[in-house]
Design goal:
Strand content of chain B: 15-25%
Largest sheet of chain B: 8 strands, parallel
Largest interface: A-B, 46 and 54 residues
Protein name (chain B): CoA synthetase
CATH class of the largest domain in chain B: Alpha Beta
Distance between the termini of chain A: 15 Å
CATH class of chain A: Alpha Beta
Shape of chain B: globular
Pfam families (chain B): CoA_trans
Radius of gyration of chain A: 18 Å
Radius of gyration of chain B: 19 Å
InterPro entries (chain B): CoA_trans_fam_I (IPR004165), NagB/RpiA_transferase-like (IPR037171)
CATH topology of the largest domain in chain B: Glutaconate Coenzyme A-transferase
Number of strands of chain B: 13
CATH architecture of chain A: 3-Layer(aba) Sandwich
Strand order of the largest sheet of chain B: 1-13-11-9-2-3-4-5
Strand content of chain A: 15-25%
Order of helices and strands of chain B: EHEHEHEHEHEHEEEEHEHEEHH
Number of domains of chain A: 1
Number of helices of chain A: 7
Order of helices and strands of chain A: HEHEHEEEEEHEEEEEHEHH
Helix content of chain A: 25-40%
Number of helices of chain B: 10
Helix content of chain B: 25-40%
Shape of chain A: globular
Distance between the termini of chain B: 31 Å
CATH topology of chain A: Glutaconate Coenzyme A-transferase
Organism (chain B): Bradyrhizobium diversitatis
Oligomer: heterodimer
CATH architecture of the largest domain in chain B: 3-Layer(aba) Sandwich
Largest sheet of chain A: 6 strands, mixed
InterPro entries (chain A): CoA_trans_fam_I (IPR004165), NagB/RpiA_transferase-like (IPR037171)
Number of domains of chain B: 2
Chain lengths: 252, 269
């Protein structure tokens, strides 16, 4: 079997996490989540079924909206968006996300862009996937400095959505909202539990010997490297070109 | 509606006004940025609908901004907004951090002439904790409990944006960028720059009429070809990402920002 790139493992994992969704929304600068959604669509169509609808914010080809930038949020509020991705400058062990900055708000020592739609979408999109490639203690902290969006809500607060998983460059975690907390589900090839513990600022549940994140089979890889990278190039030309350069380098 | 030009339009802005500006891909009137800075009315309270970028960063860098109400400020792929981030660190601007649908909700309340709009989400966030103008009430239509956040109407003094065309009657083509209409409905004064002004009445054809903001809501229009540059304009031209990156680099320091802004070349090459 051909070598699989780390980012291909991420894309294929996202496709698995999205299985069953009807409509997934992806941020304008999120090529890996977009590729995962496109891969799922390609796999479903190859199997003769219908894949998910994919809305990519800021894209012309993947924009089904005619009511301005408010429509995505209205659509989510109506329950019409099943999955969404959130990153975060900081993510803590309770699933809280910080997109605002570090230090004492409002005079943040490091200021990030801001919360965008997270303080709403995290509440109303059923399957939110936290995705951050960088897996370091400065990202995965015990407590975030600012809560842009909370992992869980007290009883009585309307909450039809929230986090289900956290995918990083090192592994995949599932979110357990009853604790609340994360459990390590699998470790990506080339990484191990000790390394993940060292790189994670919060405590998480795990097996004594966590399993490896599954690798894609040949037909999935063919779809990804063919149709999906072609589709991806329309919206993320730089990223698609880089993936193809990386593949050439691996084969060489 | 008055057919005007950007310098004359900038005179509508007075110190202390609340000014609404659109997200980078919706039609930012970059052509108005210089005239606004030259005009020099300060203490502005900016409302980013729902996020801000280059224009916000430049107005902050020019020292004209008192408050920024926004869901985010960034230069997209070119990285963080350097003058905004510096002002935050120095405490030079007051922040009203929001989330995208809360900004839309405030405008929609104003559009309807209502005092507020309820919005889901937000409860338990530090956004809510730092917003003394947002209120939490129990849903009066439920049997008890069910807290929900009320977002007060956002009523800008001035809205400024750039679109492909207006007709000579002052009707403005906004296509599917409906947030531009929401901003206009909510605002006292609406200043629009356009790529071109067409002869035919845009309301005369049902196909175009649906994407038109009627002259009723438009204070003044000015022709400013490539007026969103270095941002792109939907259906017209892509963003000039090299120029945005050049700004991002230059504006890392206050001196670099000033040098960039005083360059004669502020038009597309």
């Amino acid at each position: 079997m051909a070598e699989v790139l780390p980012r291909e493992v991420l894309i294929c994992t996202i496709a698995r996490l999205l299985d069953g969704v009807r409509h997934v929304a992806v941020g304008a600068s999120s090529p890996i989540p977009a590729a995962g959604a496109m891969l799922l669509r390609a796999m479903k169509e190859a199997g003769g079924t219908v894949g998910p609808r994919i809305s990519i914010l800021g894209s012309v080809e993947h924009n089904f909206f005619t009511n301005g930038s408010a429509e995505l949020f209205d659509c989510a509020g109506q329950g019409r968006i099943d999955a969404f991705f959130l990153g975060g400058g900081q993510i803590d062990g309770f699933g809280n996300v910080n997109l605002v900055g570090t230090g004492d708000y409002p005079r943040s020592s490091v200021r990030w862009p801001g919360s965008f739609g997270s303080a709403y979408l995290y509440f109303v999109v059923p399957r939110v996937i936290l995705f951050r490639e960088e897996h370091t203690p400065r990202v995965f902290v015990e407590h975030v400095d600012f809560i842009s969006a909370p992992g869980v809500s007290p009883e009585g607060v309307f909450r039809s959505g929230g986090p289900v998983a956290l995918l990083t460059g090192k592994g995949l975690f599932r979110f357990d909202k009853t604790r609340p907390g994360f459990d390590l589900e699998s470790v990506h090839p080339g990484h191990d539990l000790a390394e993940i513990k060292q790189a994670t600022g919060f405590r998480f549940g795990h097996d004594a010997e966590p399993r490896q994140t599954p690798l894609p089979d040949r037909s999935t890889l063919d779809l990804l490297r063919g149709r999906v990278f072609d589709e991806l190039a329309e919206t993320y030309p730089e990223f698609a070109a880089q993936m193809r350069r990386d593949l050439v380098a691996v084969d060489a | 509606m008055v057919l005007s030009e950007p310098r004359a339009m900038a005179k509508h802005i007075e110190p202390g006004m609340r000014v609404a500006l659109p997200v980078d891909y919706a039609g930012v009137s970059m052509a108005m940025t210089r005239p606004i800075i030259e005009h020099g009315a300060g203490n502005l309270d900016l409302v980013c609908v729902p996020t801000g970028g280059l224009q916000v960063d430049q107005l902050v860098g020019a020292g004209l901004v008192r408050t920024v109400e926004t869901s985010a400020v960034s230069l997209g792929e070119a990285g963080g907004a350097p003058r905004f981030n510096a002002a935050v660190k120095e405490g030079a601007v007051r922040l009203k951090d929001a989330t995208c649908p809360a900004i839309h909700a405030g405008l929609i309340a104003a559009q309807k002439g209502s005092p507020f709009m309820p919005l889901r989400g937000l409860i338990g966030t530090d956004l809510l904790r730092h917003r003394d103008d947002w209120r939490v009430v129990d849903n009066p239509l439920a049997d008890g409990g069910d807290p929900i956040v009320l977002i007060p109407a956002i009523k800008p003094d001035v809205t400024i944006f750039h679109v492909p065309m207006a007709d000579r009657f002052g009707n403005v083509w906004i296509g599917r960028r409906r947030e531009l209409a929401a901003m206009a409905y909510a605002s006292q004064t609406v200043l629009v720059t356009v790529e071109r002004i067409v002869e035919e009445n845009l309301l005369a054809d049902e196909m175009s009429a649906a994407g038109v903001l009627p002259a009723l809501y438009v204070t003044a229009v000015a022709c400013a070809p490539r007026g969103a540059w270095p941002y792109g304009l939907w259906g017209e031209y892509p963003a000039d990402s090299a120029e945005i990156a050049r700004y991002a680099k230059a504006a890392r320091t206050a001196d670099g920002f000033s040098a960039y802004m005083t360059q004669a070349q502020m038009e597309p090459a």
